[in-house]
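#onboarding

Welcome to the new folks! Below is a worked example of what a typical request in this channel looks like: someone posts a single protein sequence, and someone else replies with the predicted structure as tokens. Don't worry about understanding the tokens yet, we'll cover that in week two.

Example request:
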Amino acid sequence: MIGIVVQLAISWLIIWFVEKQHLNVLGFKPTKQRMADFLLFLLVAALCCTSGFLLRIWLCNERWEVNPKINAAFVWEGIWWNIKSVLFEELIFRGVLFYILIKRFGAVKGIIISSVAFGIYHWFSYGILGNIPQMAIYFFVTGIMGLVYAYGYAKTFSLYIPAAIHFGWNFTQSFVFSKGPIGDGILIMAKEQTPVTVSGVTYTLISLLPIVSVWVVCYVLIKNKKQEALPSTTASIFQRGRLYNRAQNK
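Example response:
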């Protein structure tokens, strides 16, 4: 928690000295719309992630059982770990630096820079630096996810949507289905089950359907949302970028 507080303090210093603004540019203030967005996108991400495990149960005969060690403290620990993890990454990649990028270079360039940085970051967080095939795969997967997160912020100027998608996916995968760095979570694979060999097509379907579905569904939902104005201005950031380009061409 101390680390998050330090991040917020540094973020405030940066946005104040660079733009003379406050952390409200991150859209922390809860509103009915933001809370509704948070719940919707969290649910979508969780369901998309769960679909992959349901396919594994159906096509690969995997069996999952409730962790016998589960209790309230255990569940809260998993929730809190994921909250801290998501906030840490959101404040870095969709925080005040991203806001400054959008304000200085426009939404499209800012989103691209943020997503590229997000993809590169995961080379280090996953410990795959030097393994070129894995670096390419994880850069593509996490980079596209970073595009969706960044688009969510750029459309609403709030962290509620990107944080909801991020948390919904990470929590479901790492803690509900125990596929993460914190060990066993709520559900664990049964120890005794018959191994099943699947075709390459089936394996590809199981691997790609969840992640592609969350990209597509969240993108469509975000695209259909009203574009919020850039904090401290009345023009949306996409309109602002067009106005700037017109002025430069005169």
